[in-house]
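Action item from last meeting closed. Structure (243 res):
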C-alpha cells in the first residue's frame, strides 16, 4: 500500500494481521525502514517513510506485506502532527497484484494516477457513446493537487480500429485518449500550421475543448466523473468562429 499525506501532517502507522498479531506503531522518521517477520505467521511486514518528497513536500508511507496470510489486514494511522488530517491509500495498479486483494471499504474518487496527475496535460475519461454511460473502469477525480480531473470524457467503449493482426474493437481510457490526441492534432493544425492561433498550446487547447464540450442538463459540471463534459470537436471549431 502507498499512503500519501500533506506536508502539514506527520503520520505513523501500525499493522495488524488476520490472526491478530500486531506490528506496533512505527514512529515516522524520514527514510526509516522497518522489516518485521511475524512470530506466528510466515508473513513479513515492511514499512518505509519518505518525507519531504522532492516534487511536493508530501509524506509517502509504503507498507509491503510479503507472503501475506489470507484474511483481513488492518492498517492503523496515527496523527503525530495533525493539522489537516487527510490521507489517501492506494494499492498497486491492476495487474501488479492479485485481483482478490482489495480494500473492504474503498472510494472510486481520487483513482486517477500517473501520468494523468501531472500538471499541464489533458486528462481524459472514457464513456460509452452508444449508451451515454461512463466506462466502469474510467478513473474518477479529483486529484491530490487538488485539481478537478478528468478534464473531459471521450468515446472509449467498443471503438473500432486497427490491430496488429487486423481490425477489431477496443475499450478503455487509452482509446478515449487516442481519439482526443487526434482531435488535438487537428486543432493544432488549424492554429499553428494555418496561422489562426500561432501561440496555441496545451492550456489554450484545453480551454477550447472545454468550451466546445457537450454537457448533459441533469449533470452538474465540473464533476469527478465527466470533468467539464464530452469531447465534441465540431462544436469546438464552432466556438472558434468569429462572432
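Sequence:
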Amino acid at each position: 500500500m502507498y499512503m500519501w499525506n500533506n506536508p502539514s501532517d506527520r503520520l505513523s502507522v501500525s499493522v495488524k494481521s488476520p490472526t491478530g498479531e500486531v506490528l506496533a506503531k512505527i514512529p515516522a522518521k524520514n527514510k526509516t525502514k522497518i522489516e518485521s517477520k511475524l512470530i506466528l505467521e510466515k508473513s513479513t511486514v515492511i514499512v518505509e517513510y519518505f518525507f519531504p518528497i522532492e516534487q511536493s513536500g508530501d509524506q509517502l508511507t509504503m507498507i509491503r506485506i510479503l507472503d501475506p496470510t489470507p484474511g483481513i489486514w488492518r492498517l492503523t494511522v496515527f496523527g503525530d502532527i495533525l493539522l489537516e488530517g487527510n490521507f489517501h491509500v492506494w494499492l498497486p495498479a491492476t495487474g501488479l497484484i492479485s485481483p482478490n486483494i482489495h480494500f473492504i471499504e474503498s472510494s472510486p474518487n481520487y483513482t486517477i494516477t500517473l501520468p494523468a496527475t501531472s500538471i499541464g496535460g489533458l486528462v481524459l475519461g472514457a464513456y460509452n457513446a452508444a449508451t451515454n454511460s461512463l466506462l466502469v473502469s474510467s478513473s474518477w477525480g479529483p486529484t491530490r493537487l487538488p485539481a478537478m480531473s478528468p478534464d473531459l470524457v471521450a468515446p472509449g467503449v467498443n471503438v473500432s480500429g486497427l490491430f496488429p493482426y487486423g481490425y477489431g474493437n477496443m475499450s478503455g481510457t487509452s482509446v478515449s485518449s487516442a481519439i482526443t490526441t487526434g482531435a488535438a492534432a487537428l486543432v493544432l493544425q488549424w492554429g499553428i500550421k494555418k496561422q489562426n492561433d500561432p501561440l496555441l498550446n496545451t492550456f489554450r487547447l484545453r480551454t477550447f475543448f472545454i468550451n466546445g464540450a457537450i454537457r448533459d442538463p441533469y449533470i452538474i459540471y465540473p464533476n469527478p466523473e465527466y470533468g467539464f463534459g464530452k469531447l465534441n470537436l465540431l462544436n469546438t471549431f464552432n466556438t472558434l468562429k468569429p462572432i
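Note appended to the action item: The first strand starts at residue 2 and ends at 5.
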